[in-house]
Write a structure and sequence with these properties.
The chain contains 13 helices and ten strands. By secondary structure, the chain is of the alpha/beta class. The protein folds into two domains: 238 residues, Alpha-Beta Barrel (TIM Barrel); 50 residues, no CATH class. The structure holds glyoxylic acid and magnesium ion. Glyoxylic acid binds next to helix 8.
């Protein structure tokens, strides 16, 4: 249902191994905006085939509310990808919104998935198109991120995978996606910005990957705030404790939301009533660029269920 899910919020994206029926059951009751049932790295090779069946059962029989519902298949450099896609999309109900493709190296990998999905949809008579989420987590993928983001109209998000990326870069770290105190700055700043620009240039939501120290809530909040401040839409969560923090970090405050609405009102009055392109809003000059910035806050807040506070 990519038409359904394309603009839904993805502040918190919960990873759930499809090998665990228990975890898939629990995930349904958590407040994550998006859930992906994983067939890739959290599932042992000997469990891959059983995990496909579990995932289909969970999609078809579970109560997923309004969550974006996705399955992460194995990457194209394994033997599992084509069977993952065919089994899942042929057997899952229309409630399945998307397929996530990990370790994407170039645009051709996204196009190959797109073609496969097109054939499966034609064969099964599926009414809604399946969306694609693409993970950038290799050096080659980052080099090609611009062509990857433009590779298919099915793409809904682009995601950074810090653990695999650290491995691909051969960084001397043993935990991906956390701060490196010895480095004077944020060692992923360039990566975050590059992925964000490529995603935005193609109208995609842009998502940060996991924070692996799941008991370190303060560290998680700090890392989530880094990508939020750059403009990312959300981040992965691996544990129920991370869900609440993540939703909070990626939702505008009520004050920001109300101020954004006030800017839009003031700008509309100026342009439509007084025919002015730039006006004062308190101590600040606002113009068309301010309208664009404010619109983002309003859209994001509304996606998160916020409404304007009535004053006076
Ligand atoms: C996620 O898949 C990662 O590798 O960080
Ligand atoms: Mg990975």
């Amino acid at each position: 249902m990519s038409e359904r899910s394309r603009f839904l919020p993805r502040r918190s994206c919960l990873a759930v191994p499809a090998s665990s029926e228990k975890m898939m059951g629990k995930a349904q009751g958590l407040a994550a905006d998006m859930v992906f049932l994983d067939l890739e790295d959290s599932v042992a090779p000997l469990e891959k085939e059983a995990a496909r069946e579990n995932a289909v059962k969970a999609i078809n029989e579970g109560d997923w509310g309004d969550k974006v519902l996705c399955v992460r298949v194995n990457a194209w450099d394994t033997k599992w990808t084509y069977r993952d896609v065919i089994y899942i999309v042929e057997n899952a109900s229309e409630r399945l919104d998307e397929i996530m493709l990990p370790k994407v190296q170039n645009a051709a990998e996204v196009k190959a998935l797109d073609l496969l999905l097109t054939q499966i949809e034609a064969t099964t008579g599926r009414q809604s198109t399946v969306g694609i989420e693409a993970q950038i987590e290799t050096t080659r993928g980052l080099i090609n991120v611009e062509e990857i983001c433009a590779a298919s109209p099915r793409l809904e998000t682009i995601i950074f995978g810090p653990a695999d990326f650290a491995a691909s870069m051969e960084m001397p770290v043993l935990t991906g996606g956390v701060q490196i105190p010895e480095y004077p700055g944020d060692h992923f700043h360039y990566v975050f910005s590059k992925i964000l620009m490529a995603g935005r240039a193609n109208g995609l939501q842009v998502i940060d990957g996991p924070y692996l120290r799941i008991r370190d809530t303060d560290g998680f909040r700090d890392f989530a705030a880094r990508t939020r401040i750059l403009g990312f839409d959300g981040k992965w969560v691996l544990h129920p404790d991370q869900v609440t923090v993540c939703n909070e970090v990626f939702t505008p405050t009520q004050e920001q939301f109300d101020r954004a609405w006030d800017i839009l009102d003031a700008y509309r009055t100026a342009t439509e009533g007084d025919r002015l392109g730039a006006v004062m809003f308190g101590d600040e000059m606002i113009d068309e660029a301010s309208r664009k910035m404010a619109t983002k806050f309003v859209t994001r807040g509304e996606r998160a269920g916020m409404s304007r506070r009535v004053t006076g």
